[in-house]
Specification:
Layout: E1 23-32, E2 35-43, E3 50-58, E4 73-74, E5 77-81, E6 83-90, E7 105-112, E8 121-124, E9 127-131, E10 146-150, E11 153-156, H1 162-172, E12 195-198, E13 201-204, H2 218-228, H3 235-242, E14 306-312, E15 335-338, E16 355-357, E17 366-367, E18 371-373
Parallel strand pairs: 14-17
Antiparallel strand pairs: 1-2, 2-6, 3-5, 3-7, 4-6, 8-11, 9-10, 11-18, 12-13, 14-15, 15-16
Length: 376
């Protein structure tokens, strides 16, 4: 089969609040038998930018782009760094596409992940689901299966970044809660891979601007939400979204096996479980968007950092949780955290895993994402 290809149209779309002069260079497309190979370089910008790269295909000389290859390999998809010698390999016949003729046009798209100053939200359609350990493999506090009904809500697709939290602190003019029930509580502490207070401003450490914020207490996460008109997710909302609207899945990327190439967790041999594979232990946070999202376009639901929830924690709450929009116990000592982190093993990044932390404390593997009511 002879394949005639034209590489007529090349786009680099930068989805961020300002341009940083990224560009594709040395673009080339070749065909060998039934395989298409695209090579390119990403030059310019900042070393810590992370990209999503995809390809679209037109069969009408570029008037419309109706096909997007799904099974391409190489420097394709989420978590692509800038650099030289990038490549994409695609075998069209594996997707029942036969390229014949001279009207095919490939379009290469790139976007910087998570750098918008705006919070991007995913709409979550409410519904009913059975909350708790559907796989019967967790500790006692998650084993009591119970039905929950939730209203519609929206949840941020990324964890809040160092960059966004620094802007909040500098606008807020304090690193302690200024008023209300939690007045005076510490919101943030300095971290080498997080924020530092330099020349009367909070600043992300260089290269960590678009990593999830760490060193943030529950009070700090809660006050961020209040300042912008958001709130922290309830434990039930978090699990419902993490399970792609209540599906029976083990991990927040929609899979049932944890792979360190797909989730930032401790995938070293000593922490392996029957539902994980061995791999690199990064031993730190990674930039948001480093790994592919789940089907709702939520990133790092499992792993990277634990996420603060609104609820107080008690180990027996599932035995007396209300069914409609549960919000946890009225009082408590600890707040719920969910999702596991770069530090934890596969068992702790399961979507039903429950853990807790004192609201006045912070850690190098705890951050948060935000929610808002669907009518906003």
């Amino acid at each position: 089969m002879q394949i005639f290809l034209k590489f007529l149209l090349l786009y680099f779309i930068i989805l961020t609040f300002k341009l940083y002069s990224q560009a594709f260079y040395n673009l080339n497309i070749t065909q060998l038998h039934d395989t298409v190979k695209i090579t390119y370089d990403i030059i310019g910008g900042r070393d810590y930018d992370v990209y999503k790269i995809d390809v679209e295909l037109s069969n009408d000389a570029g008037r419309t782009f109706a096909l997007q290859p799904k099974k391409a390999k190489g420097d394709f998809g989420y978590g692509i760094d800038k650099g030289m010698g990038k490549f994409i390999i695609w075998e069209p016949l594996t997707e029942n596409v036969e390229l014949k003729g001279e009207n095919y046009v490939f379009k290469l798209n790139g976007s910087i992940l998570g750098t918008s100053r705006d919070i991007n939200f995913v709409p979550i359609k409410g519904g009913s689901f059975t909350m708790g350990d559907n796989f019967a493999e967790g500790p006692t506090d998650e084993k009591e299966l119970h039905d929950v009904n939730l209203d519609d809500f929206e949840i941020s697709n990324f964890e809040v970044t160092n960059d966004k939290y620094a802007k909040f602190l500098n606008d807020y003019k304090s690193d302690r809660v200024r008023s209300g029930e939690f007045s005076g509580e510490v919101m943030i502490r300095e971290r080498e891979t997080g924020l530092k207070f330099i020349q009367q401003n909070w600043q992300p450490q260089a290269g960590y601007e678009y990593y999830p914020v760490i060193g943030v207490t529950w009070y700090g996460a809660n006050e961020f939400c209040k300042y912008y008109g958001y709130r922290l997710p309830t434990e039930a909302e978090w699990e419902y979204a993490a399970r792609e609207c209540g599906k029976t899945i083990r991990f927040g990327n929609g899979r049932n096996v944890a792979d360190p190439r797909e989730i930032n967790f401790n995938g070293s041999k000593t922490s392996a479980d029957s539902f994980s594979v061995h791999g690199e232990y990064k031993a730190r946070t990674t930039p948001i968007g480093q790994f592919a999202p789940n089907s709702l376009q939520m990133f790092d639901v499992s792993g990277n950092v634990w996420e603060w929830c609104q609820d107080w924690y008690t180990s027996n709450y599932y035995f007396h949780s209300k069914q409609d929009n549960p919000t946890g116990p009225w009082v408590g000592t600890y707040k719920v955290i969910r999702g596991g982190s770069w530090y934890t093993d596969a068992k702790s990044v399961r979507v039903t895993e429950r853990s807790f932390f004192a609201p006045y404390k912070e850690n190098g593997d705890i951050g948060f994402r935000v929610v808002r009511s669907a009518e906003n």
